[in-house]
Amino acid sequence: MHQLFDLTGQVALVTGASRGIGQAIAVGLAEAGATIVGVARSDQSETARQVQAAGQRFEGIEADLSQPSTAEQVFDEALARTGRVDILVNNAGIIRRKPAIDVTDEEWDEVLHLNLTQVFRLSRRAAHHFRARGRGKIIMIASLLSFQGGILVPAYTASKSGLLGLTRALANEWAPLGINVNAIAPGYVASDLTQPLQDDPERNRSILERIPAGRWAKPEDLKGAAVFLASAASDYVHGAVLPVDGGWLAR
Ligand code: NAD
User: Fold this and answer.
1) Exposed e or buried b per residue across 115-144, where buried means at least 16 C-beta atoms within 10 angstroms of its C-beta
2) What's the whole-model pTM score?
3) Which uninterrupted H or E stretch holds 137?
4) Is the CB of 56 under 6 A from ligand 1?
5) Confidence band (pLDDT; 50, 70, 90) for 68?
6) Is the pLDDT of residue 196 over 80?
7) What is the rounded average pLDDT of the residues 4-25?
8) Whether the CB of 67 sits within 6 Å of ligand 1
9) Per-residue pLDDT band at 1 (split at 50, 70, 90)
10) How many CB atoms lie within 10 A of CB 22?
């Protein structure tokens, strides 16, 4: 591992680490040397297995981040277990597919709360810890719908567009504290979240036709961007968004 990308001795807190993108990022950071604290509602044993296979320690916290006070509690629990956190990856997120005209208040609130409000709360808690230490890395998992309107996912688009604004706002305030706040915008990644699109032959075909790389991303495709934004290699990168989208946005 090149020294610039080496995370030996560091601790990364990854939300939504039980599967998909969060799992792959957790394993990627572990392969770069980090201890992983994974947060998820569901079983994280497969993530634990892969992190340990990479020779690193894994701590799993079972928590439902949709509950109002959990963000701060989760961070404090991570600190209690590992004594330090160097990297926060705000990955947990949900999507609800429905025409805007049919979206209920509850559905709107559910998506905005988890994808945006809880990300702010967890980042704010992390920033208290990072400020005291003079450094820290916060990585947001944005989306192509941080840039585009999307189809039948209005709350999700609002949350991910807001998340990119939040990334820039926090970067402005926290860069002077030595805290890097940046985002990754994954393209179409084959995961549980996008299973309905993969299963719809028409949507699947139109998505594939528009991706210059000609394939869906695998969760593992996100590892490199995450290691970059978690490591010293990105120490002068603030408020940036790195698309990992097979060229979608360039089209
Ligand atoms: P996924 O559904 O496979 O995994 C979501 C993860 O979040 C799981 O670990 C789940 O346990 C966790 N999670 C969900 N609700 C939670 C809650 N209330 N409390 C705690 N944990 C919770 O999804 P994914 O495709 O891996 O997506 C991960 C992130 O990447 C999301 O923020 C998503 O918006 C974003 N993203 C995904 C794609 C894609 O194409 N899959 C594209 C762009 C962005």
Assistant:
1) bbbbbbbbbebbbebbeeeeebbbbbbbbb
2) 0.98
3) strand 136-141
4) no
5) confident
6) yes
7) 98
8) no
9) low
10) 28
pLDDT tens digits, 18-41: 999 999 999 999 999 999 999 999
Residues with a known catalytic role: 156
Distance 96 CA to ligand 1 centre (A): 12
Q: Exposed/middle/buried for 220, CB within 10 Å: 0-12, 13-18, 19+? A: middle
Residue 142's pLDDT is 98
Which residue from 43, 62, 189 has its CB within 8 A of the most atoms of ligand 1, so it is best to mutate?
Answer: 189
Testing ligand 1's pocket by substitution, the residue of 62, 74, 91, 111 carrying the most ligand atoms inside 8 A of its CB is 91
pLDDT at 154 over 90: yes
Give the helix/strand (H/E) hosting 186: strand 179-186
From the number of C-beta atoms within 10 Å of its C-beta (0-12, 13-18, 19+), residue 240 rates as: middle
Q: Which amino acid is at 113?
A: H
- Nearest-atom index, ligand 1, CA of 188: 40
Determine if ligand 1 sits within 6 Å of the CB of residue 16. yes
Q: How confident is the model at residue 2 (pLDDT cuts 50, 70, 90)?
A: confident
Answer CATH for 2-243 from 3.40.50.2300, 3.40.50.720, 3.50.50.60, 3.90.228.20 = 3.40.50.720
Q: Is the C-beta atom of 223 inside 6 A of ligand 1?
A: no
The whole-number pLDDT of residue 30 equals 98
Q: What is the average per-residue pLDDT within 189-211?
A: 95
CA of 3 to the centre of ligand 1 (A): 30
**Element of type H or E holding 76:** helix 70-82
- Cα 43 to middle of ligand 1, angstroms: 14
